[in-house]
Amino acid sequence: MTSRNAAATRQRILEHARRQFAQHGYAAITVKGVADAAGVSPNLITRYFGGKDGLFLAATQVEIPVSTSFDGDRSTLGPRLAASIVQRWFGAPGEDPLLVLQRASGERPEAAEALAAFLDAHSLEPLHRYLRDSGLDDADARSRAAAIDAFVLGVSTRRRVLRSELGDPADLQAWLSTTIQRLADG
């Protein structure tokens, strides 16, 4: 097998794993089930990822380009963040590594720790810095960032993890936009 085919096979396995972990959580997923869905031998998952735990860790590597949401004035933060959030939530249903971590955080302490660390580093702290740099004092910036972070995580948990309907993307974006802006403005 060439390295190009190995890379493509590894990626295909990860896509199926993300989808299954996002839809069913950690406990319900088997290496064999992911291998069957990806059209590979379970031995390949062991070879590439070391087993189910390694596959889970690889499937939950999260990257969110939040910096683009912070380009601009604080008076338009709500619309920018809401657009980014809605795009992520509706973009690749069932394959979002952040959703995988959210769903698994109740089952696996390491998933909860990874989710908290990710949100601190890629959501809460950048938002805190942005709000502080926009003219708020440090304590006010921190509390507003914490409120926005908690609001978005709560909506995400309610609508994505508990499997409620996300609703109409435009309506959701408008509501998120208004609420995030209110929290940013204090």
From TrEMBL:
Organism for this UniProt entry: Streptomyces triticiradicis
One annotated GO molecular function: DNA-binding transcription factor activity
The name this protein goes by in its record: Helix-turn-helix transcriptional regulator
Coiled coil (UniProt feature): none
Statement: the UniProt record of this protein carries the keyword Methyltransferase: no
Highest classification ranks of the organism: Bacteria, Bacillati, Actinomycetota, Actinomycetes, Kitasatosporales
Gene3D superfamilies tied to this protein: Tetracycline Repressor, domain 2
Pfam families xrefs: TetR_C_16 (PF17920), TetR_N (PF00440)
InterPro entries for the chain: Homeodomain-like_sf, HTH-type_TetR-like_transc_reg, HTH_TetR, Tet_transcr_reg_TetR-rel_C_sf, TetR_C_16
